[in-house]
Amino acid sequence: MALAHNLGFPRIGRDRELKKALEAFWAGDLEQEELLQAGRQLRARHWQLQGEAGLSLVPVGDFAWYDQVLTHSLMVGAVPERFATDVEPDLDTLFHMARGVSRTGKQTFACEMTKWFDTNYHYLVPEFTRGQKFSLQWTQLFEEVDEAIALGHLVKPVVLGPLSYLWLGKTKGEVFDKLELLDTLLPVYVEIFNRLAEQGVEWVQIDEPALVLDLPADWKAAYESVYNRLQYAPLKKLLTSYFGGLEDNLGLACSLPVDGLHVDLVRAPEQLPYVLDRLPTYKVLSVGVVNGRNIWRCDLNATLDILRQVQERWGDRLWVAPSCSLLHSPVDLQREDRLDDELRSWLAFATQKVGEVALLARALVSPEDDDIRLALAESTVVQRARQSSRRIHDPAVGERLTRVRTQHSQRATPYVTRATLQQQLLALPAWPTTTIGSFPQTSEIRASRQAYKQGRIDRKDYTADMRAEIAHVIHAQEALGLDVLVHGEAERNDMVEYFGEQLAGYAFSRFGWVQSYGSRCVKPPIIYGDISRPAPMTVEWARYAQSLTDKPVKGMLTGPVTMLMWSFPREDVSRELSARQLALAIRDEVADLERAGISIIQIDEPAFREGLPLRGADQARYLQWAAKVFRLSASGVADTTQIHTHMCYSEFNGILDSIADMDADVITIETSRSDMELLEAFSGYAYPNAIGPGVYDIHSPRIPEVAEVVRLLRKAARVIPVERLWVNPDCGLKTRAWPETQAALAAMVEAARQLREGD
Ligand code: GLN
Ligand code: ZN
């Protein structure tokens, strides 16, 4: 019989119990023993629900106090020097590495954090030094295995594979070939596997997501030698690939001396025939058929058809699984009490997905069982209902898209012409100063928003509160002497949610939290249908702000690509299509802002880079449509209207072409922490439009010195002509307090003044 298993379950808890326990522990309000207890309870609950759902093997090692890659670094003894102590690493070491506290209790820089493949999860980047030694240190995995066995579960420990682990890390000090480290790393893996075998483990899951990337030849070769060297470990090895297709690594992955291979058939269904051809039939084939990264219910009948094909060839060696770890799904749909029945009937969170996996495996052997027939019939009904639902399909949106022409995604004149016309209208000084949009979100603002949402104050009082805040922000900016003002974004809790709530085609869960990093979770909105904008979303706030000042007020919108990337997307249409619909909705808002007298409009795209696919060949396609979609949202304006965009990261390598292709009149970016170094990339490339390189870091309360800002701007002027330079912070100011905000902006404005006057 086909076996049902899971690659990993979300650890955060259906009520974010882990987040709450961690934060209480860090604040000193929870004892370590209580924290450990909270972790044990969550693991026990998650194993139990997976066992009860009908999984034959439950994953162990998917739990982490902060991040699974960090746990792995501790396990293999990869603790950077600044955190190392004489004793073995413990929970303190782990949190120090994550949060930047040195072994002596001083503040130091934390381990770097970066995106886990193309998900919105972030892992802590391992740091490797040349000649580094590894040794088995942190034993959490073995303890959890014992814990699960004691609770009566059949377990499958999850271990990050050696090559993916090295791939994800960075070299420190001397630059060297990370593959050199294998000689000392592999013995630790052998030790881990031996120990698991002694604990009675039959199968270990070795995660090698790097197999879905474009790998250099020496890394491919290393896969062969590594798994040859590990093949004698006394347990069975299931090698897992996910987040994409194996493509050119398929032959390699199929031939490695392991006992089973997991492939992602949600992201890459087209690879199945090749896997069936290449994988020896004595190996287990685990197929990921339930999407681990989204919230839609699986089409059970269609999936079952595929599984039957595989079963014909693979028989009992077919395993059924989610495409990847369920870490990227919210925990439990049962918790959602405010979603309407129709929408709810389309959804499945991690708990429900586990049920789907178990049901599919069972349906292969006993399709006639009553509950299975019922479930399959219900799935048919749900899929049909969704396909034809009026809520999803809005003919007007489809019709409008067919009328979109190339010229809709192009400004009428080239940048140089526009820039001159805009300058005639705006008459801005050299070194124009501005901010990225948000001003401090005080507790009063939050309280007012909350009260309005809960119906404790009415629209009139709420509007009065927000207007008072806008007036305050405008006056503060005038007093500071900024050139281009913003309204401050007081009415927004979140830059995607705020717009999603006003667009048709969007829904919001109450408890659909997904871990982003450490204790931080995000609750992505759900794009369920065709998107349109029933009414203006920001115009009244912007109009009011502009009425208070003679200086230009910059309208502030979230761009189509970011809206998409930070939401759960549809699966019945392409990401590109939803993005184009979003672009038209935003285009309408841009037009209305322009009509309301707003002559500068910023369309934020901080997630532009996040959409980048993992493989080079797909990246080019993505970049092309993403830039075009941005232009579609931005190009409906007169030449004299100035379009800004903002991105808050500093990695533009390889994507500068498309940044230029977006053709925003001004782009503001994060640069202060890189000491303007990243601007070099823009200069080498001869970026054609204007740039506002961030002159101070908004992540810390530190107030920059005027001289320091002047120095950074002079440095910027060496690579970008002064006529195309703007002066602004790295990002929005919503997490900062007022006093430091005012002091920092005062320094920034003074720096611009000195540069203008050539002091
Ligand atoms: N306009 C937004 C703000 O200032 C931009 C946020 C972001 O880049 N993530 O808050
Ligand atoms: Zn930003």
Q: Can you walk me through this structure?
A:
By secondary structure, the protein is an alpha/beta fold. The chain is built from 27 helices and 21 strands. An 8-stranded parallel sheet has the order 1-12-11-10-9-8-6-2. Helix 11 (300-314) packs across helix 13 (350-365) and helix 22 runs parallel beside helix 23 (616-634). It is globular and about 75 Å long. The termini are far apart. Bound molecules: glutamine (GLN) and zinc ion (ZN).
Brief sketch in words of this structure:
By secondary structure, this protein is of the alpha/beta class. The chain is 43% helix and 12% strand.
Instruction: Give average pLDDT, whole number.
Output: 96
What ligands are attached or bound here?
A: glutamine, zinc ion
Cα-atom radius of gyration: 27 Å
Helical percentage? 40-55%
Number of helices: 27
Low-confidence residue ranges: none
The largest β sheet comes out as: 8 strands, parallel
The tally of strands reads: 21
Strand order of the largest sheet: 1-12-11-10-9-8-6-2
Amino- and carboxy-terminal Cα gap? 80 Å
The coarse overall form would be globular
Secondary-structure-derived class:
alpha/beta
Report the sheet-strand fraction: 5-15%
Binding site for L-methionine: 436-438, 489, 604
Domain Cobalamin-independent methionine synthase MetE C-terminal/archaeal: 431-753
EC number: 2.1.1.14
Keywords: Amino-acid biosynthesis, Metal-binding, Methionine biosynthesis, Methyltransferase, Repeat, Transferase, Zinc
